[in-house]
From TrEMBL:
Main localization (coarse): cytoplasm
Pfam families for this protein: Adenylsucc_synt (PF00709)
Location in or out of the cell: Cytoplasm
SUPFAM superfamilies (UniProt xref): P-loop containing nucleoside triphosphate hydrolases
Chain positions recorded as GTP binding sites: 13-19, 41-43, 307, 333-335, 416-418
Name of the protein this chain belongs to: Adenylosuccinate synthetase
Native organism: Neisseria dentiae
GO cellular component, one term: cytoplasm
Residues given in the record as substrate binding sites: S301, V302, T303, G304, R305, A306, R307
Domain of life per record: Bacteria
UniProt enzyme class: ligase
Record gene name: purA
Pathway(s) where this gene product acts: Purine metabolism; AMP biosynthesis via de novo pathway; AMP from IMP: step 1/2
Family, per entry: Belongs to the adenylosuccinate synthetase family.
Length: 432
């Protein structure tokens, strides 16, 4: 029996991770974010009521659950507190009491945001299309060993010189490389003074707490952000985010042994989307793509940007399945495919030299050289929206799902047919 499940995005993010984490969280003792920051936007719909979470784990609506932010997450104090306040205002109980943050998590401070935005402006048409939330610079600080971590907030003697040095370091880049406004030390200190007192009670030895819960046989759910094709190592580099978004990152980012990760649930949209720049072999520029965007409401939950849409890419999925060790897939947004006459699945690529491959290569340049090889399947006219049983799906929708399983080589455990928690078909429970 699986005690712990890792949920990861298997494409370029926004696959519907939040919905499924919320749905699976019910029977667990805790939900853990292990990487990324408030670049994530995870949408939960319960009884028609929508909640968008950015940093807080998608288990928070279950009021008996603890939620954990592990060391691998980069945390903006302002974004965190803004989100807590929104949840409090929405009537969610004891959010601050149930949220535990690792002392070694890295902070996102105003200079990270300023540099992220200044760099993007300087890149012009070569921009990565970041969320502008300071994610990249914060991870750089961590690796460069100059990060301000949660635990540093309470050692004021050491904190001030550290902040002074960082402000100086960032201002050199802002002013001289990007002709941007420098950041003021007092503005950085003001953020810390405003929020440190509220953060302090939430700081917990997350690694130990999770270990102990596991020892007691309690179930845990690890919630990935972004998606495998945005992974810093295995994605379409440099058009990626700045963390590892793979299932394996749950171990390092939460501080738990890899043996604790029993089941990897890959969240897979029934088509493909991408937000921001970078290659996307199956992207559609026609009415079908526009239809997917419209029916799927494909606008970013964080930045409101339009998401690019395209056909399902099984060759990219094959890569995801291999690097994550996906035990089962959850196919989301099947309902958005309703009404399309003919559906295409990308099963491989033709490369510039005329050779073919059945798996997505690494890095933006290699992916940009991939021309999809498609298989065509008949679509369906009936509505799948809200279906809760596989047998309710039209025969062609069932055939589409079966073909995805065959080409990708992993079983489908869950199918999602609408944004609401209830609009879900269970085939094989990940915790069973
Ligand atoms: P995440 O970042 O992976 O959590 O995904 P997002 O929340 O950014 O984007 C997924 C969007 O699709 C959200 O607006 C969800 O409410 C919505 N959604 C999730 N599953 C389904 C589904 O099966 N059908 C439809 N129509 N919408 C869905
Ligand atoms: P969730 O968790 C989709 C993309 C950005 C940009 C690139 C780098 O909701 O699936 P960053 O700000 O991280 O440095 O931006 O990564 N990106 C996402 N795209 N969903 C996300 O999160 C994303 N988080 C970052 O659009 O292309
Ligand atoms: Mg999202």
């Amino acid at each position: 029996m699986a005690k712990n499940v890792v949920v990861i995005g298997a494409q370029w993010g926004d696959e519907g991770k939040g919905k499924i984490v919320d749905w699976l969280a019910e029977e667990t003792a805790g939900v853990v974010r292990f990487q990324g920051g408030h670049n994530a936007g995870h949408t939960l719909v319960v009884g028609g009521k929508k909640t968008v979470l950015r940093l807080i784990p998608s288990g928070i609506l279950h009021e008996k659950l603890d939620c954990f932010i592990g060391s691998g997450v980069v945390v903006s104090p302002e974004a965190l507190m803004g989100e807590i306040d929104e949840l409090n205002a929405a009537g969610v109980k004891k959010v601050e009491g149930r949220l535990k943050i690792a002392p070694t998590a890295t902070l996102i401070l105003p200079y990270h945001i300023a540099l992220d935005q200044a760099r993007e402006a300087s890149r012009g048409s070569g921009k990565i299309g970041t969320t502008g939330r300071g994610i990249g610079p914060a991870y750089e600080d961590k690796v460069a060993r100059r990060a301000v971590r949660m635990v540093d907030l309470f050692d004021t003697e050491k904190l001030l010189p550290k902040l002074q040095a960082n402000v100086e370091y960032y201002n050199v880049q802002l002013q001289y490389l990007h002709q941007a406004e420098p950041v003021k030390l007092e503005d950085v200190l003001a953020v810390i003074e405003k929020y440190a007192g509220r953060i302090k009670p939430m700081i917990t030895d997350v690694s130990r707490t999770l270990y102990e819960k596991n020892q007691k046989g309690e179930k845990l759910l690890f919630e990935g952000a972004q998606g495998t094709l945005l992974d810093i190592d295995y994605g379409t580099y440099p058009f990626v985010t700045s963390s590892n978004c793979l299932a394996g990152a749950a171990s390092a980012g939460a501080g738990v042994p890899p043996q604790m990760l029993d089941y990897v649930l890959g969240i897979v949209k029934a088509y493909t989307t991408r937000v921001g720049s970078g290659p996307f072999p199956t992207e559609l520029f026609d009415d079908i793509g526009a239809g997917l965007a419209e029916r799927g409401h494909e606008f970013g939950s964080v930045t409101g940007r339009a998401r690019r849409c395209g056909w399902f890419d099984a060759a990219a999925l094959k890569r995801s399945i291999q690097v994550n060790g996906i035990t089962g897939m959850c196919i989301t947004k099947l309902d958005v495919m309703d009404g399309i006459d003919e559906i295409k699945i990308c099963v491989g690529y033709t490369l510039a030299d005329g050779s073919t491959t059945d798996i997505l290569p690494f890095g933006a340049d290699a992916v940009a050289g991939c021309t999809p090889v498609y298989e065509t399947l008949p679509g369906w006219k009936e509505s799948t929206f809200g279906a809760t049983e596989f047998s309710q799906l039209p025969a062609n929708a069932q055939a589409y799902l079966k073909r995805i399983e065959e080409v990708c080589g992993a079983p489908i455990a869950i199918v999602s047919t609408g944004p609401d928690r209830a609009e879900t078909i269970l085939l094989q429970h990940p915790f069973a």
